[in-house]
Design brief:
By secondary structure, the protein is of the alpha+beta class. It has one domain: Cytochrome P450 (Cytochrome p450), CATH 1.10.630. It contains 18 helices and 12 strands. The chain has helices at about 5-25, 45-55, 60-70, 90-95, 105-115, 125-135, 140, 145-160, 170-185, 190-205, 220-245, 255-265, 275-305, 310-325, 335, 340-350, 385-390, 430-450; strands at about 75-80, 80-85, 100-105, 165-170, 360-365, 365-370, 370-375, 380-385, 450-455, 460, 465-470, 475-480. Helix 8 runs antiparallel to helix 9, helix 13 packs across helix 16 and helix 14 (about 310-325) packs across helix 18 (about 430-450).
Length: about 475
């Protein structure tokens, strides 16, 4: 962001925000004190410092420096709002389970994704929307999607990987997971509509954590325009799907839109979703379903390039599964259950490089934690890296060790320590879908190809999600048979 924009923002918002922030820093009579720390400059606060650290691959250090200076609870200002940073397992548990906190996204994210998404709703509305999404993502439904996912993976590897000397992993993984999720969410086959939607979503992601200034030259404006375009497409798909359901040309299991519409229009249904709610939550599901999974698989490829022992163990696991199947026979739900080591590798990758660096909540009322006041209306921010890289929780935390997860998920760590999928009532509703998508893709990838990293410098940045240097170009070798 250039200096002229910063000065303009400060001049516009200074009088109002200075009043609000100054008033907010005064403890209320008879209550606990505010946490230590500074709110910084109006509007800007510590936002630019955090964003710079994320882009320099120093966000974990940035958070830890605050913890070292102020302790596990401190105040700051992020994205124009007074904020309390909470760290540690007890803080994570408080954030995930406290009824006094509601999920809070940066204003930029709210504007881009809509006001009626699962990310914004609380109470009965949140429960209603989550229940509708969970219906689509329950095991009985997911079993039906394994074949569709595998079909997209096979076609993608045939068209974009096979026969290539080099490929760039991150953009290819993003396109693969986008194709998978757009097929399952909307029933969108390959073609111009899917391509246009993919282009829109590339721009949507650019402004998710941007300063929400709606001016022609800002990234935020470009993201808003892309969001509006994507929403028009999804609204049109919703109306078409509704008509197909009425004509008997689609069923509840056809895709997410059909599932949500079927729930809404079933006789005696208690889950009523408006078109706005279907569009808003489809936007969220599309981002959550393709962006995080693509990051996970990209960083698995990145790690496996330099860890031959882990790669060999994965190849052995998948070869064992394949040898018991006929040539070209599709994967089944039972096959996925045998990929235990691969999923432990995925979980360890998520521990070291969580796609979501952290998340926000909003205090619905004055609330105390660890003897400090969190005033009503303030943001609460937690970061996954604090517990993921705590040597008291994960021994030798910088070491890649899938055996940490040998006993079901994060059972070897205290509750609310491994938080790659969040926790509590808002734990990622698509966690099982992400597992299926990852296992199917890695099954075919490790059996068909060998690879080496092209870049000697093995680094990544966050903007706001992690991206390896240059998108992770690799030298690719096709195995003779698969």
């Amino acid at each position: 962001m250039d200096l002229s924009l910063l000065l303009a923002l400060t001049a516009i918002a200074f009088p109002v925000l200075l009043h609000l922030l100054t008033r907010a820093t005064k403890p209320r009579p008879g209550t606990a004190k505010l946490p230590p720390g500074s709110l910084g400059l109006p509007v800007i606060g510590q936002s630019l410092g955090l964003l710079r650290a994320m882009r320099a691959n120093a966000a974990e250090r940035w958070v830890q420096d605050r913890v070292d200076r102020y302790g596990p609870v401190s105040k700051l200002s992020l994205f124009g709002a007074p904020t309390v940073l909470l760290t540690g397992p007890a803080a994570n548990k408080f954030v995930f389970f406290s009824g006094a906190l509601a999920l809070q996204q940066p204003r930029s994210t709210q504007r881009i994704l809509g006001e009626r998404s699962i990310l914004e709703l609380t109470g009965a509305d949140h429960k209603r929307i989550r229940g509708a999404l969970a219906e689509f993502l329950k095991p009985d439904m997911l079993r039906l999607y394994v074949g569709k996912i595998e079909g997209e993976v096979r076609r993608h590897l045939d068209e974009s990987w096979a026969g290539r000397a080099t490929v760039t992993v991150m953009p290819l993984m993003k396109r693969l997971t986008f194709d998978i999720i757009s097929l399952l969410l909307f029933g969108l086959e390959r073609g111009a509509v899917r391509d246009a939607l993919a282009g829109d979503f590339n721009h949507v992601m650019d402004g998710m954590w941007a300063v929400p200034v709606d001016l022609p030259f800002t990234v935020f404006r470009q993201s808003l325009k892309a969001s509006a375009s994507a929403r028009r497409v999804i609204a049109g798909i919703t109306r078409e799907t509704k008509a197909k359901l009425e004509r008997g040309e689609a069923s509840r299991s056809s895709n997410l839109i059909a599932c949500l519409l079927s729930l809404t229009h079933d006789a005696g249904a208690t889950t009523h979703l408006s078109e706005e709610e279907i569009v808003d939550n489809s936007m969220v599901a599309l981002i959550a379903g393709h962006d995080t999974s693509s990051i996970l698989m990209t960083f698995m490829v990145r790690h496996l390039a330099n860890d031959p022992d882990t790669l060999a163990a994965m190849v052995q696991e998948h070869d064992e599964i394949a040898k018991n199947k006929g040539d070209g026979e599709a994967l089944t739900w039972d096959d996925l259950a045998k990929m235990k080591f691969t999923w432990r590798v995925a979980l360890e990758t998520l521990r070291l490089v969580p796609p979501i660096f952290g998340s926000f909540r909003r205090a619905l009322e004055d609330v105390e934690f660890a003897g400090y006041l969190i005033p009503k209306g303030w943001q609460v921010f937690w970061a996954a890296s604090v517990t993921h890289m705590d040597a008291a929780i994960f021994h030798d935390p910088a070491k890649f060790d899938p055996s940490r997860f040998k006993d079901q998920s994060s059972a070897t760590a205290p509750p609310c320590s491994f938080v790659a999928f969040g926790g509590g009532p808002r734990i990622c509703v698509g966690m099982e879908f992400a597992r299926i998508e990852t296992l199917v893709t890695m099954h075919h990838l490790v059996r068909r190809f060998r690879w080496k990293l092209c870049c000697k410098e093995d680094t990544f940045a966050r903007d706001p999600m992690p991206s390896p240097l240059h998108g992770l170009p690799i030298q690719l070798e096709n195995k003779s048979s698969h």
